[in-house]
Amino acid sequence: MATVHPATAAAMHPAMARAARAAAHLAPAARPLPAGYTFLGDLESYERTDSGVLLRCAPGAALRIRFVTPGMFRVTLDRDDRDESLLAYPLVAAEREPVALRFEDEGERLVLRSERLTVVIGKAPCRLTVRDRDGTVLSRDDPGLGIGWDGNEVRNWKTIGPEERFFGLGEKTGDVDKRGREWVMWNSDTYAYGPETDPVYQSIPFFIGLREGKAYGIYLNNSHRTTFNLGAGNHRYYSFAAAGGALDYFFIEGPRIADVVSAYTALTGRPPLPPKWALGYQQSRWSYYPAAEVLRLARTFREKRIPADVIYLDVHYMDGYRVFTWDPERFPDPADLLATLDSMGFKVVTIIDPGVKADSAYAIAREGLDGGHFVRYPDGEVYIGSVWPGKSYFPDFSRPETQEWWGGHVAEMAALGVDGFWNDMNEPAVWGKAFPLEVLMEDGGLESSQKKMHNLYGFLMAQATYRGLRRADPDRRPFILTRAGFAGGQRYAAVWTGDNVASWDHLALGIRMMLGLGLSGVPFVGTDVGGFVGSPAPELFARWIQVGVFSPFFRTHTAANTPAQEPWSFGEYVEDIARESITLRYRLLPYLYTLFREANRTGSPILRPLFWHYQADPAVYRPEYQHQFLVGAHLLVAPVIREGQRRQEVYLPAGRWLDLHTERVYEGGQAVVVDAPLERVPMFLAAGGILPTQEPVQYVGERASRTLFLDIFPAPWTQGFDLYEDDGVSYDHEHGEYRVTRFEAVQGAEGITILRELRHDGYDPGDRTVELRVHAVGRAPAAVTLDGAPLPQATSAEARGYIYDAERRVLTVRFREAGARQEVRIR
Ligand code: MIG
Prior knowledge:
The protein is α+β, with helices and mostly antiparallel strands. The chain is 18% helix and 30% strand. The strands form eleven sheets. It has a nine-stranded antiparallel β-sheet. The model is unreliable at 7-19 (pLDDT under 50). Ligand MIG binds at residues 286, 314-315, 351, 424-425, 483, 498-499, 532, 557.
């Protein structure tokens, strides 16, 4: 048992204590101020605990600091006048091995040191300062304000650095850098939201701070309405607050942004590998019906040779908006329709809203009432709100029995042939926009109101759906798309950014929102391509589909009663652009799928702001470049987001960059201007980068690619690329049935050496040719060898051997993929 140490004032020089009090005259209030915040005051005693320290601070609170890993600790305020349970749903690994710490009582302060971080705890008053190993202050409680509470509200104020930047907070509007605004977490149905609207659908109370070039993260583990003031209306601090529940946050060390996101997703979970078809192009509208219309749509894709994998059924497929039913007129034989679509290579995703029509003749409503599955008012009356089906009940997804019941119905639909599920309206939204706060959910016996549960509703619904599908078919990867969610929701569902607008503003906003979600642990994100509200001009649609190519989730969708919004709806020129763009998406699948695997392993985004890889370059933070992004580490994309624009200024970070359209090489560390006619999205390959692609297909599962292409921009160093492949549908990869092939390309004094090496050989993608496309090769090679034996000059583009294109400066080398290791030398 740890001993309790009195924190006597004698430990501090009395004059210093006075000065500290004077400086922080708000702090040591023994009695609460009559109206306003009570601030955490002086240390009264402390106790060393296993992985941290427990502080008793005036007036009437305990502050617990507990290290989770050497680079992450948790801070929890426990007020004597409140009894708050801590939020558990988002966390997958809050408890780990004990962390070795050094601890010292230095008189005026306590010092807690892990291998990575030093937490200095001021005693009078209780305040935390966090330093990294270099001594850089990453975070410091505001000396005067620190921690405070007012009624149920709890808040932490921390000093703000003059240049400090903030990223993340999940799905937020505004700029990529979130500084200078106050952000609220309260899941909201925000039809036609604007570029500044806040809050919108998701709540992810996690942000990344960047201070003196070093990143840290703070995850506020609280699902109540939370607020993040990132230097809004003041020049002194940033603060974060919760309207109820405990002040409970995790501090995460960087110093790289990628380190923060990796640790944050170790804490809240990482996305499972999706079925590979979910990386394909997806077509939606509100709504495609009847069945004949859906088939016509599917046939049109195939006839026009525009690749696509998924068709969505929005609310009109149901019988009077009753979930888990089919409209008998519009969809008389859903199993037959689904089978036909399946035979054409189409998957179907159906919308599922949480509202269950209050209809005594409807089995789901009856089952729900009988099973006690619906949320209630505190007096026991079942809550009824109005939404699409009219008066509706709402499932209590915090109950395990309700999750099981709901998940069972989802699984029945899957058994019928539905491939994925689209969870909408799960903020939860009701007409009147005010889901009553007093309505209760079981919440593990706590009987919590919406004040705590509202922001968790979408998360829990997706969880119920995911678990239901896993239970029913443990070997098939679920696909779930959700509108609302919370931190940790990445474990269950992809996210789309809701009811955006067909405007140029929204094309740009969507990129920023996707980047913010990706930085917040949610890599599988997309926008309604073309815009949901309204109708895009052909040019806007073309530019949006070009962004869609690189969006992890790539779906066109539009509202009811808008004009057609299919790839062929905007004239032949744009149809060709759409076909080219979507075809490029399918070519990129080997690269993209590998990035999904990386996301699954490390939590890293697929779409990355430039600063993800170039954190130290000040130019990448400039707002004018915030719509450029990296796809993985090797591909830089600078989409056009302005009407009429045909030339694009692109900032290229340090290194060298190959323009994939013109073969021109640019030195990095400068902005360049490139041509961007409507049919072109500027794309650059990093020096040392390797981009694997495949033959285009009409849908993901159509056939295995007979050729694996590798675009290579050789440099004296190599970034290398570890290509990941598996069957794309099952969990066999968890039992080793996958393949990782490492590729490296290095430019040396004697030439270029390209290495292919199997790193894990548990899956066979079939026989194929490898086609290297080595770019920026200045002269025809004297010799090209494969494993020491000379390769011939090829007689055709299909044949084994090499061909040098002097005009484009591209050397193509083709050979059969074979064995565990192959080496190509170009001299
Ligand atoms: O009240 O299901 O964001 O994608 O098409 C609107 C109809 C309900 C909102 C979703 C949108 C969907 C629409 N839904």
